[in-house]
Design brief:
Blueprint (H helix, E strand, L loop, with lengths): L8 H21 L5 E7 L3 H17 L2 E7 L5 H13 L5 E4 L9 H7 L11 H9 L8 H12 L8 E5 L6 H9 L8 E5 L6 H7 L2 E4 L17 E4 L3 E4 L7 E4 L4 H4 L13 H21 L2
Parallel strand pairs: 1-2, 1-3, 4-5, 4-6, 6-7
Antiparallel strand pairs: 8-9
Helix pairs in contact: 1-10, 2-10, 6-7, 6-10
The structure holds guanine.
Guanine binds next to strand 3 and helix 6.
């Protein structure tokens, strides 16, 4: 069956990378090279893969990146001391502390320690607050910003649309809702955030013009939960057992793609939808941090 309704996240991300590359060239004229520091604590397998991908994209674009590795046993004080060093380093324009952090480390204290001007992840409370207030001088977390760009660049109508977000996490659900409810261009949506305690979640989904699934449950969104023609964005990354795979497992999203796709208007493939956009927005945020730091 031809799949004509796919939102090609890879192609859209490439377009953003091309825009970012031009901004990097403009910085180079002023002898500024964007610098991005990754911090990874422990060896969470998904984090190893994600940080590796972000490093490769940085190198390809000409962003100076360096990964700082701490052992799983590192103390919160050691991590905060590293962040302080990176905060003070003028060659570092962006700092990304990869989540999840080990349970003995207070993630909220860690993210609050990253200087807001270097917080390209948008996790510092100053940037969280600016997003909520509609203040564009802050940094928006990369995954929700990437989903927003997918909708904009696919010309999905957002103003007045009924949007259902599945998941209320700090990385996707909450900032996604903040972005889409703003009284601003490419926003003005009516947003419902559904979660584990939501009564009649399928009923909410069936009213939605746009569903953004970030709930972390493999193939959670079924065809009978969507309105015909709805736009479906799959943020999920779930590892499920697969005896046919060499590794014994494979990754699937939060959407039951085979069944939902024929009924959807637009839909993201997974992989190849949201993932590449997260990286594209991280690169763009980093270049913006470098521009702002070197503008004075
Ligand atoms: N873990 C999963 N997504 C993200 C992200 O966007 N940023 C960071 N720092 N960690 C993550």
């Amino acid at each position: 069956m031809p799949v004509a309704n796919l939102i090609d996240g890879r192609a859209i991300a490439e377009g953003i990378h091309a825009e970012t590359a031009r901004r990097i060239e403009a910085l180079a004229v002023r002898e500024v090279k964007p610098g991005l520091a990754f911090v990874r604590v422990g060896e969470d397998p998904a984090s190893v893969v994600y940080v590796g991908m972000k490093e490769r994209h940085s190198a390809k674009l000409g962003i100076n990146s360096r990964t700082h590795l701490l052992p799983e046993s590192a103390s919160e004080a050691e991590l905060l001391a590293l962040i302080d060093r990176l905060n003070a380093d003028p060659a570092v324009h962006g700092i990304l502390v990869q989540a999840p952090l080990p349970a003995h480390i207070g993630a909220a204290r860690v993210y609050a320690r990253v200087r807001p001007e270097k917080d390209v992840d948008g996790f510092n409370p100053v940037n969280v607050g600016k997003l909520m207030l509609g203040d564009p001088t802050g940094f928006v977390p990369c995954t929700p910003a990437g989903v927003h760009e997918l909708l904009i660049r696919t010309s999905v109508p957002i103003a007045g649309a009924e949007v259902v977000i599945l998941g209320r996490g700090n990385i996707v659900g909450k900032p996604m809702a903040s972005l889409l409810i703003q009284k601003a261009r490419n926003a003005n949506a009516t947003v419902t955030v559904c979660h584990s305690q939501t009564r009649d979640l399928p009923g909410h989904c069936r009213r939605a013009d746009i569903i953004i699934a970030a709930i972390g449950v493999a193939r959670f969104l079924k065809a009978d939960m969507i309105k015909p023609g709805a736009t479906v964005i799959d943020v999920g990354v779930n590892r499920i057992p697969d005896p046919q795979a060499k590794s014994g497992s494979r990754l699937v999203g939060d959407v039951d793609f085979e069944n939902v796709q024929p009924k959807a208007g637009w839909i993201t493939p997974n992989p190849g939808g949201v993932g590449p956009m997260t990286i594209a927005l991280l690169m763009r945020n980093t270049v913006r941090a470098a521009e702002l730091a070197s503008a004075a």
